[in-house]
DNA sequence: AAATTATGTGCAATCGTTTGCGCATAACAT
DNA sequence: ATGTTATGCGCAAACGATTGCACATAATTT
């Protein structure tokens, strides 16, 4: 069913069909209604591809490319939910691809996005990614780029992040307030911007509360398996930690599991705080205190920024930086 | 950068450019190489939209529409991962939309998919969905449809499901083997096909082991909150259950939490088995015995079936039914 | 009755590609 | 010198939609 089919059947030109379907007043009422009726009955639907091609010169195609490192992580899934929600509400569609934390895939995805003429790209970098030629190429072509969470500091691009610094600062301050004096920090290596901010929040929380930084308590560790390897060593130190802050809940759960295996009582002897607030935070015993990362809100904001860039309410070369507030969710203080 | 630009610069026709770029032998070597060099230097990329429009008559567009009820559930996220993986590997792209368990959104999504001429649709029904006009419309238009997990039995469509019956049967048999005699069943209402199969697996496991079915042990309950409401009542029964089977891990965790709150010891006094094997199954104490649902494999198979339908290796009206095997993952028998 | 103005349609170009066909020019055989 | 074949390239139509412009015909004004 194309306009041509309708035109042929009704003995008019496709131009007339086009105008009739868009309620143009320059078509007589009878014809217009006849055409509309025919179209409805044979449930005609405009071919989106043709429309896109036609409009691609003036107005950009309302499709947003989204790159996500993995689907199966709660945080990314919730960001995706926020993106989908906001985009749909504002009349955009999304095409989603997964980098699987690989630079090569990320690169391919960007190329495909350029070819399919997405109006903009929302992305959280793969862990692998240390060169940015693919992102730069997008920018050079004039495709607006919005990073979320794992931003690319080397690029002058828009970004939506959570308040890593304050989130961590509040969390660590809370541990101190609850009596911890030797708080361990488990984080990713300091390459990613996000890592530095959280680490600074940790340090400042210590300083503000008159505690000093002990390098032996700072570990590069961002997953459960590593946490379960490292934690027993930590707990056997002469002066063992009495509190742990981890940059994500997976790691925090590894710590929890390890210390419980060593028969320490949480939270009486050891207190633990994570980051994200994923499903697991309420399924362990005791439940996990954690910093809520509000992925949905991050996703929504990212779309808002992108559409601003696309529709020109933000200047094209402007790099908007938005910060989404975090909340500390306190749990498991009593059974 | 379009072919026209290249053609103008090099003083040839676009047809020549097109042929040169596709390595047609009908273009002289020098011209071909000159054109290719020029294209490479100015990094020309073919406009995918135009290509799609051109090819839409003969060969269908290599884009698969995917509908997922929610992103933030482990199982759906893993199916999505499998879909993305297989589709990408076979040269297809995916456009993903989330129904948010709503029929209205599902309907809109299908309409958009039709307009954007996806070559096929992979979908797991929203819980809301009780009429199928939108799916029928897709079928009528000749768009292949593959259901996963939550299939639509009323439609003669392809489907990929896990082995719900055997998975449940093995799980319940295992509970019996471990000494349980009064096993409660928490499942969704019997509307969905998947619910019936699991329930049958439960019943048959009882019968095969000489146990009788006690209706009071069968509950409509498929989420944590409900499980935490219902379970205390169950445990106060004169003859309380000594085992629980739940149709998903969320529910199983609700049961676990409830019985532990009542100071029953798991697994000594009560044994629990879930379904899915999501992240949480290893973050509770004791860890959860559960049926592994293998979402990635389901996703891959769904794509395989769909591409078969699209490319004609399967007859278009054929309804392929695939079953992915489940595994019982035993955990938490000892600390 | 002639000139003007509405009113309703169709023609054709356009978006960026692909591709069947035809037209040159050159090389070969007769 | 004429006919045949090969080689290299361009024209134009097609995919499905939109839209400025021209052109009818009818209704109005002068």
Report on this structure.
2 copies of one chain form a homodimer. With 335 residues, the first copy, chain A, is of the alpha/beta class. Chain A folds into 3 domains: 3-46, no CATH class; 63-161 and 295-325, 3-Layer(aba) Sandwich (Rossmann fold); 164-293, Rossmann fold (3-Layer(aba) Sandwich), CATH 3.40.50. Helices cover 44% and strands 16% of the residues of chain A. Chain A has helices at 3-10, 14-21, 29-41, 48-55, 74-89, 103-115, 133-140, 164-177, 193-208, 224-235, 249-261, 295-311; strands at residues 63-68, 93-98, 120-123, 145-148, 158-162, 183-187, 218-220, 243-246, 271-276, 289-292, 321-324, 327-329. In chain A, the strands form 2 sheets. Chain A has a 6-stranded parallel beta sheet, sandwiched between helices. In chain A, strands 7-6-8-9-10-12 form a 6-stranded mixed beta sheet, with helices on both faces. In chain A, helix 1 packs across helix 2 (14-21), helix 2 (14-21) packs across helix 3 (29-41) and helix 5 (74-89) crosses helix 12 (295-311). The N and C termini of chain A lie far apart (64 Å). The model of chain A has no long low-confidence stretch (mean pLDDT 94). The interface between A and B is large, with 47 and 47 residues. Chain A binds a DNA duplex (30 and 30 nucleotides) through helix 2 and helix 4.
């Amino acid at each position: 069913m194309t306009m041509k089919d309708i035109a042929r059947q009704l003995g008019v030109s496709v131009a007339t069909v086009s105008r009739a379907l868009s309620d143009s007043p320059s078509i007589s009422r009878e014809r217009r209604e006849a055409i509309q009726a025919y179209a409805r009955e044979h449930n005609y639907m405009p071919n989106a591809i043709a429309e896109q091609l036609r409009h691609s010169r003036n107005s950009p195609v309302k499709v947003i490319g989204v790159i996500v490192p993995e689907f199966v992580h709660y945080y990314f899934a919730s960001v995706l939910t926020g993106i989908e929600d906001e985009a749909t509400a504002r009349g955009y569609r999304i095409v989603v691809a997964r980098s699987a934390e690989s630079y090569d895939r990320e690169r391919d995805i960007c190329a495909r996005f350029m070819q399919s003429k997405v109006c903009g790209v929302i992305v959280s970098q793969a862990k692998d990614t240390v060169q940015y030629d693919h992102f730069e190429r997008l920018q050079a072509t004039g495709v607006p780029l919005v990073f979320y969470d794992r931003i690319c500091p080397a690029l002058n691009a828009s970004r939506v992040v959570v308040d890593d610094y304050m989130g961590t600062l509040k969390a660590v301050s809370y541990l101190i307030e609850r009596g911890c004096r030797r708080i361990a920090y488990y984080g990713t290596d300091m390459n990613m911007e996000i890592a530095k901010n959280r680490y600074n929040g940790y340090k400042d929380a210590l300083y503000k509360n008159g505690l000093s930084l002990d390098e032996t308590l700072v570990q590069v560790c961002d997953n459960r398996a590593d946490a379960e390897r490292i934690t027993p060593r930590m707990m056997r130190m002469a002066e063992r930690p009495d509190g742990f802050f981890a940059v994500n809940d997976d790691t925090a759960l590894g710590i929890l599991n390890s210390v419980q295996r060593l028969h320490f009582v949480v939270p009486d002897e050891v207190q633990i705080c994570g980051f994200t607030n994923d499903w697991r935070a309420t399924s362990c015993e005791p439940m996990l205190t954690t910093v809520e990362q509000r992925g949905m809100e991050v996703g929504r904001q990212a779309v808002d920024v992108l559409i601003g860039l696309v529709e020109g309410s933000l200047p094209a070369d402007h790099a908007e930086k938005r910060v989404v507030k975090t909340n500390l969710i306190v749990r498991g203080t009593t059974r």
